[in-house]
Amino acid sequence: MIIQMKRKTIARDISWLSFNARVLQEAADPSVPLRERIKFLGIFSNNLDEFFRVRVATLKRMTEVGKKNMHMEIAPGKILDEIQQIVLEQQAEFNRIWEALHRELEKEKIYLITEKALNKEQQKFVLSYFEEEVRSNTIPLMIESITHFPYLREKSIYLGVVLSRKDATLKRKYSIVEIPAKANGRFIQLPSPPGEHHIILLEDVIRFNLKSIYSYFGYDRYASWVFKVTKDAEIDMDSDISTTLIQKIEKGVKNRRKGKPVRFVFDKQMDAGLLDYLIRKLNLSRKDSLIPGGRIHNFRHFMDFPDVFEKRGHRKRPFVHPLLKGAQRVTDVVQQTDVMLNFPYHSFHSIIDLLREAAIDPDVTVIKITAYRLASNSKVVNALINAVRNGKQVTVMLELRARFDEEANLEWKERLEIEGVKVLISIPDMKVHAKACLIKKRVNNHTIHYGFISTGNLNEKTATVYGDHCLLTADRHIMADVNRIFNYLEKPKEGIQFLKSCKTIIPCPTDLRKELLKLISREIKNAKEKKPAAIILKMNSLSDETLIEKLYEAARSGVEIKLIIRGIFCMYSENAKFIKPVKAVSIIDEYLEHARVFIFHNNGSEKVFISSADWMVRNLDHRVEATCPVFDENIKKVLKNILEIQLSDNVKARILDNELSNRYVRDRKHKKIRSQLEIYNYLHQKSNAIPGLPSFVDTEPTIIGEAPAV
C-alpha cells in the first residue's frame, strides 16, 4: 500500500521495502533450490537490519528535531508509520514462508531440533558440547541487579530468561544471555539417524543448559525467549579540528555501540512482564518499531545454513573472456584493444592477472587504484603489495567511510602503509565511489597509460555473485581522464579543476547531472521532430527527483524509455500523459544485479556508458563517481544485447508499477527467458567461437537453454 497523495515520486524508503519484498518472493519461489530459498530469507533479514540501522534511524532523527528533508514530500513521521505497517505485513509473510520451508526441510530429512526434542544420545552430546565449547562464551546478566542496563550488541541475539520456583518461595527474576554465534556458529549438527540430518540452533543448546547456567541462584523453572535490538548506525563526525579524519571515524565506529535503538524484535510468546521491562529499559515505547515474530531471529545467519542438501546442480563457473583466453599476458591484449569483462560470467582472475603482471613488469613505474569494499583476504591488495616490493609507486584511494566496512578499511590502511603503499583517505563531505585503476609504463622514453573503469567493487569474492561490467582499456582519452581523477584525489582541496577538465569520462559531483539532462533533452528534441528517440537505463536505484522529472518530460514527448532497476525506484512508470508506456522491470535472481549502464539512441549514433553512479542525490552531488563512454562497437553491441535479454526476462523480472505490486512478467506466447541463464549462455557461446573467426566479432544474441519451470 502506497501513501495516497498527489506526489511526483514514490517515497524512497517505501520503494526500498518493495525491493526487499522481491527478495522475499525468491524465498517463496518453489523453482528456486531449497538451500537458496533459505539463503534469500537470510538476505531479506540482513537487508532489513541495515535498512533500520540507516534509513529508519535517519527518519527518527529527523522526527525528533522536527526536520523535513527538502527532497521529501512526506513528513518523516508519516513515512515511519507506513514503514511500520509494511514491515509487520512482511514479517507475517516471512513467517509463513519459513514455516513452509521448515516443512520442505523435513521432506529432505533435514530436521531443526529444539531443546525439547533431543533423544538421549543428542542430550548427552549437547551437554558435552556446551561444557567444552559454549560455557566459556556464555555470561548471564541479572539485569534487575545492575544499576545501568547493560550494553546490547546490535548484531547479536539474546535470550530473555524468566527464573522462578515451582513453590513460589523465590521472587521471579529476569536475566539475559547473549548468544555467542560469532564465536561458536549458529548451527550445530547433532548425532543423527542414517540418511537424516539433525541440526540444533545455538540458542537451543543454551536453553537446554539453563539449569546449569543458573544453578547458583536456587531456581528450578526457566522460561526463555529470543529477542534482538537494531540501533542507529550513523557515524557522527564531530567538527573538532584537532582530530584527524581517521580519529573521527575510529571514534564514530566505537560510538555506534551507543546508538539509539530503532527496532526491537522479539518472540511474540515472550512473557508480558519481561517484555514490558525490556521495552522500558531500552527507552522504547509502543509507538516505536516493536516487531513481534516467531521463535527464531537474526535470520541473516541462515545465509550460512549448513550444506546438508543433496547436490542438485551447481552454480555455473565463470570463464575467461575470449580475447584473453590463451593470451600469454592480459597486458598485451589490453594495450591492443578494449576488453569488457562482464561479471560474474567472466572470471575476475583477469583483473588479478593484470595487476600481478604490472607488479613484476620492469617497465611499469606507477599503479593507482581506488578501493571501496575489498575481499577479506584480498588478492588485489596482495598484488599491490607485491608491486611495492618490486619498486613500483603504488597509490590506493581507500574510502574509509564505506558503510559497515569502516573498520575493515582502517585495517587495510594500516597494512598497506606498513608495506610502503601511499594511501589516500576519504575527502571531507565526499565519498569516493568511483572504481578505477591507472597503470603507467615507461617504454622507449614514452609513457603508456592503461588500466580499467568498473561499475563494481574490486572484490574477487563478490565478483562471483554481483553482476557488473569492467572496461580494460589503454584508450588515451579515457586514461587521461582517469589520471585527472587521481590528480584530484591526491589534491582535493585545490584540485577540483582536474575533475572539471575531464573530456571523456563524466565525473561526479561536477558534471554527470547536467550531462544526463543534456542527453535526455536531446532525445526529447528528436522525439518532437518525429525522429527515433529511446533511452535504456540500468542501475541499482533511481530516486533523483530532477532526473525523474526529466524522464517524465521525455515520456510525455514520445521518447521510448526502458528501465532495469534492481532496488529503489521512485518514478511512477504509468501516466496517461505518456505517449509511450515506460517499461520498468526489476530482476532478482541468483546473482545481484549491480551494474549501471546508460544507453541513449542519439538519432542512431548511440551513446553507451558504464558508470559507478546510481541516479540518486548522494551519488550525483556528494560522491566522486566515474561514468565512462564505450567506444568499441562490438562491446556496445554486447552490452545492448545483455540489456535486451534482461528486458525480455519473463521468469525473474518483476514489473515496477505505480502500485508496487511486484507482479512477475509473464509471457505465455513465447519460451521462458531467465535472463541470467541466457546471458551466461550468450557470453559462453561467444567465448567458444568457431576457430579461425575473430572471437570478438559480435553476433545477435541467440537465446538458448530452457529456464526452469515456475
UniProtKB/TrEMBL annotation:
The UniProt entry's sequence similarity note says: Belongs to the polyphosphate kinase 1 (PPK1) family.
Q: Which domain of life is it from?
A: Bacteria
Q: Organism source for this protein?
A: Niastella populi
Q: Does the keyword Heme apply?
A: no
Cofactor(s) this protein requires = Mg(2+)
Question: Its Gene Ontology molecular function terms?
Answer: ATP binding; metal ion binding; polyphosphate kinase activity
- Polyphosphate kinase C-terminal domain boundaries: 330-493, 508-676
HAMAP family given for it? Polyphosphate_kinase
Its protein name is Polyphosphate kinase
Coiled-coil blocks: none
EC top class, as a word: transferase
Amino-acid positions noted as binding Mg(2+) in the UniProt annotation, renumbered to this chain: R373, R403
Q: Which SUPFAM superfamilies match?
A: Phospholipase D/nuclease, PHP14-like, PPK N-terminal domain-like
Give the UniProt keywords, A-Z: ATP-binding, Kinase, Magnesium, Metal-binding, Nucleotide-binding, Phosphoprotein, Transferase
Entry's Pfam families?
A: PP_kinase, PP_kinase_C, PP_kinase_C_1, PP_kinase_N
**What's one GO BP annotation on this UniProt entry?**
polyphosphate biosynthetic process
Q: Which residues form the active site?
A: H433 (phosphohistidine intermediate)
